[in-house]
């Protein structure tokens, strides 16, 4: 049986739009300020397309993946040539939008959702926490300066690589 | 995808010696790490139970289904349950999947209603998608809840169907046994033997021969062995749109089985098609259920071995018993059927008429009329060959209800009409 047609928009949609909007603005303003209209228009168009696909109720995750990857690429470009703080904000907002897009799709695809409010609240709480921690650590990484010896740097680098490898192994082929 | 993007940012940062790019990757790693950290427990204690409103229904009858998935272990942030509805069944109302949190001791319930055509449907497992809060690494578990639903063909009630096999069983029944004894119908007059009941004395016979005593004998009535054969050869079937002649044959077989079992006979069923599906003979309600279940799972089949009736396993049927074949009949089938008759079996054929069934598929023009006429002549020849061998053939246009057609041809005529040779 397929989900009933004409179902009202899922709860996270306004927050998804907020995420896309913040991400696009955080990219568009610095790019436009420097006169780089190409990336600025690219960010605007990408955000618009992604939001449109979401509102149309597209069942394909490609839009979400494409939107996130595009905004991340533009954020990386922004970090290289402009203020990295704005790029970090754009990254965080794009990640939030990506997560909410997938969450909304899961809600839409299920024929029935139990305790939708509780589900949404707990999801939003966890997401806010994770994004907050990400923003904090990202800001510290951007702003903080610590002097390390060669040995400590190698140790930290190895630790970082081990952590990444561990996460990737745990994730397997699903992500 | 997210992990690839995070790795890409770290890699780009290292190559370009840009710490800012690595900093951008940090929120992505935090997100992925949190997904893994708050993921579903490695070992879950989920238990699924499914309740069917009925285990056996008629075609098209709605069956309510309730599926409950209960969590006896740690809480899970997000669970999707999806019941696998057997192919062929369709949903009438309700949902077959649901999403929600599953706290410790909590349960998710699916209530839905299904209906379907004749068949045996096996319910398998329930797919449970266990997600972490961010669905970073969802895990799919399959909970097995095996169950069966039988959509049995409808067995329309027939009044008594008259059969006359040469061999009957020892049990009392409704088939005249060609033997004198207790019964209701006149069988003959014979000389009195010690032990005969005095109330059987025949005054008229004794009046003609006052020197001796005569008694009236009645014909014993006993039950019989009936072997039903359902023709499930694909090449014998005719499909018109979504309708199949085979479905009519199945309904006829169900009605006949029901009528024979009601009459106290021992009935077996052989489905003859791609393979042989044999239901061992038996009596009573249990046998009725067995036969209906065999009919529910009967499918058309193709086999070089069973292309004709040449390999009909006649040893399955007791000698000189009643055989009832439900088949549209194909040219060449008559040889084996006549041979069966010659071996002493009483053969009754219910033949759904494929010509009139298929004729509706074509436009009503001159060519069709001619083709139908030729096909009818061929069929009439085939049927007359069988009838000449003392095989009772009922040519059944499926537009006429089976009960009405058979009742007219096979019902036992009332006692007072029999001397006149009139059927009911």
Radius of gyration of chain B: 33 Å
Helix content, binned percent of chain B: 25-40%
What is the residue-mean pLDDT of chain A, rounded to a whole number?
Answer: 83
* Quaternary form: heterodimer
Total number of strands of chain B:
20
Quickly give the structural class of chain B: alpha/beta
Report the total helices of chain A: 6
Amount of beta strand of chain A = under 5%
Could you give the distance between the termini of chain A?
A: 28 Å
* Helix count from the secondary structure assignment of chain B: 9
Low-confidence stretches of chain B: none
Structural class of chain A: mainly alpha
Strand order of the largest sheet of chain B: 17-16-13-18-19-20
CATH class descriptor of the largest domain in chain B: Alpha Beta
> Most extensive interface: pair and counts?
A-B, 52 and 51 residues
| Series of secondary-structure elements of chain B, N-terminal to C-terminal | HHEEEEEEEEEEEHEEEEHEEHEHEHHEH
Give the topology, please:
The complex is a heterodimer of chains A (175) and B (424).
Chain A: H1 13-33, H2 37-55, H3 62-81, H4 84-109, E1 112-113, H5 116-143, H6 150-171
Chain B: H1 2-16, H2 19-37, E1 46-52, E2 56-57, E3 63-71, E4 76-83, E5 90-94, E6 97-102, E7 107-115, E8 119-131, E9 139-151, E10 172-181, E11 183-191, H3 203-208, E12 214-222, E13 225-231, E14 239-240, E15 243-244, H4 245-262, E16 266-272, E17 276-282, H5 284-297, E18 322-326, H6 334-342, E19 346-352, H7 354-359, H8 366-388, E20 392-396, H9 402-410
Parallel strand pairs in B: 2-9, 13-16, 13-18, 18-19, 19-20
Antiparallel strand pairs in B: 1-3, 3-7, 4-6, 4-8, 5-7, 8-9, 10-12, 11-12, 14-15, 16-17
